[in-house]
Amino acid sequence: MRIPVSFLFVTCLVLSTAALAKQDAEGPFDTEAGPVMVEPMVGPFVHPWGFVFLPESARILVTERGGDLRLVEGDRISEPLAGVPDVWARGQGGLLDVALDPDFSENNRIYLSYSEPVRDGARARTALATGILTKADGKPLLEEVEVLFRQEPAVSGGRHFGSRIVFDEEGKLYLTLGDRGNPDRVQDLSNHLGKVIRLERDGSIPADNPFVDHTGAKPEIWSYGHRNAQGAALRSSDKAYFTISHGAAGGDEVNRPIPGQNFGWPEVSYGTEYNGDSFPAQTREDVVPPLFYWDPSIAPSGAAFYEGDLIPEWQGDLFVGALRDRLISRLKVEGDQVVEVERLFPGDFGRIRDIRNGPDGALWFASAGSKAYIYRILPAE
To answer: Which residues are paired to 165 by β-bridges?
Structure first.
């Protein structure tokens, strides 16, 4: 991070805030860390799902669920970039997460997760593609696009695509995969439903993946028994990988996936079925329990561990966007224990889709919806 560049970034974006009708900065808001302000920085977007800051520049890549990838440069939002794969934009499906290659500064490579149409759109599956971010005739676009992974099997219906992308400190790629509305198949290792997978950056399978030598198991699988993890984050202090998954009626979970381990869905859950029925068990010896769960459900989505220095009291805390409860949930995590939970901005900014650390030391988040904005959180003073 180069602070002078981030200050330029903030200055450029301030030019656009005057045009954000009905989205003026609000606050101060009381928090356990003291009063904070929330500023709208850029928008509107149409159902944004993921965003990422490009290093050492005043630019943000933003995915819109309908299938558009846009580049924010200063106060300008680009037209949709050419080269993005065709997506199945129905229900919860579409263009979903975006991530940068760990060596993006040298190779300009990005990764996209999305729902891919199969059989003329009758079925769909989560897919992962990579491409090079470049420009032609002054316009940004993707080139050399290649699909690295396709979830098997493709199924009908528009639910539970998962799709958060995270890189670990070794450059391995983790992708969350939802159960696609087929919970009865999640415990079966011969498919990708309800799994977290781990890949090399080129899509190949790491030799130390837990099921590489297991007959009948998909070698990409890292852990299983997940319903629909739409949040995932790496904790910088110890490089631990976390996922945040939707439960049914309650039972949203924060998990720390362990290679080869079972996280229980649909046989073990702290929630209930939508019809009120109980799950077979809340605990089981062969199932890793969640570090934390919400009951009732908040419908969690994007997440990040705060790494900035503007609000020191928040450093290392996990922030999770909530779709149903329309808030940000702050969790203080010590090792594998959640010791404090705080509800931030309930109802003030609508459904929260994604959360990221900004280059200015602030925490940034994206709302969801047809006229959604990206905001940043600052100390009130």
So the answer is: 175
**Contact at 8 Å (CB) between 374 and 43?**
yes
| pLDDT confidence of residue 25 | 57
Token pair in block for residue 72:
């924010």
Residue type, 151: Q
β-sheet with 318-322: strand ranges across:
300-305, 318-322, 327-334, 337-344
The residue type found at 212 is: V
Main-chain dihedrals φ then ψ at residue 22, nearest 5 degrees: 60, 15
- Angle at CA 146, nearest 5°, toward 200 and 303? 55
Question: How many whole angstroms separate alpha carbon 49 and alpha carbon 6?
Answer: 23
Is residue 160 annotated as a catalytic residue, yes or no?
yes
In one-letter notation, the amino acid at residue 259 is: P
Closest CA to 60 of 69, 71, 68, 49: 71
pLDDT in tens, 111-147: 999 999 998 889 999 999 999 999 998 899 999 999 9
2's tokens: 């180069």
**CB-based contact 91:157 (threshold 8 Å):** yes
DSSP secondary structure code for residue 358 in this structure = -
Contact 275, 282 (CB under 8 A): no
The reported pTM is 0.93
pLDDT in tens, 96-112: 999 999 999 999 999 99
How far, in Å, CA of 224 to CA of 119, rounded?
27
Tell which residue, 137, 130, 21, has the closest CA to residue 79.
137
| CA–CA gap between residue 253 and residue 255 (Å, rounded) | 6
